User: What shape does this take?
Amino acid sequence: MADKKNTLSGGDEIKLKSRINKEEALSMLKSESLLGIGRIADGVRKSKHSENTVTFIIDRNINYTNVCVSECRFCAFYKKKGAAGAYILSKKEIFDKIKETKDLSGTQILLQGGLNPDIGIGYYLDLLSEIKEKFDIHIHAFSPPEIIYMADANGITVKETVRLLKEAGLGSVPGGGAEILVDRVRKKISPNKIDSEKWLGVMEEVHRAGLNSSATMMFGTVETDEDIIDHLVKLRRLQDRTGGFKAFIPWSFQSKNTALNPRGVYGHYYLKVLAISRIVLDNFDNIQASWVTQGAKMGQVALSFGANDMGSTMLEENVVKAAGTSNNAVDEKTMVKLIKDAGFIPAQRANNYEIIKFYK
Assistant: This one.
């Protein structure tokens, strides 16, 4: 990051050094200069991705169960055991979904579910092994809360759990369950879920095992601006140690059908948080635009506020939909057009961000 001064409209002047500190980041987030912050973030993106390419992946979210004992207040997806609508997908249902994904040129599945007490680690290991036997597809699966739940239920360490999952076919780990990595916030919105140090600890074990992961942030519940910056700095510190995060995805809380009243997140604040994320997370190469929660048009705008990736075509999505937000799936052709119309070169990527193909 260049050592130069950047003047935000409104008179604020911020000097970007090799690394922005917490106080500077908080000052930027509290600034009213959305466009000024966006210009700085766009400059950082260009320094990392000078070729002007914007990537996306063709994959599918498969939620293998919606039964969960965590009962997070922000979640509208989970069901209690025995409740109407509670389910565990059969292997055939999962395999049918994967086949459909492959038929649509998909290269990855995102496999996540609730913390279901009726599922033992054997289920996960067998499922991974059978998927790898039947399909040539990358498995991006099991967030840190799921991994800790597996470990605790079977009396083994997180390190051993990660090893077993990797041997069975796990390819990488999604960043779900991070929400805000500040325990004061977590106690209010997800009191039964793992704390911030455990989330970070799982990710460190994942990276030490040679697997990469993504990192996320769900904002717009009860957190403060200071909490958002703390979250980003904690991720940056871990990335300094391991280098295992491939991407960061911030998204705004969707409140319908949940037990929380949000503090309110509108488009301008989403873009500001996205831009700040690009600036603070100087050791992350890739920042995703969250069109699933913000809509495709806002996803396009995000590409000028630091994002270099449009995420997934999202052949299936259930969790955000349950909270009342339903932006229709974007097929490959539409995704390419969205990126081109925003002035960028579209490219399909793999999980590790290697380019599969460019689009003319």
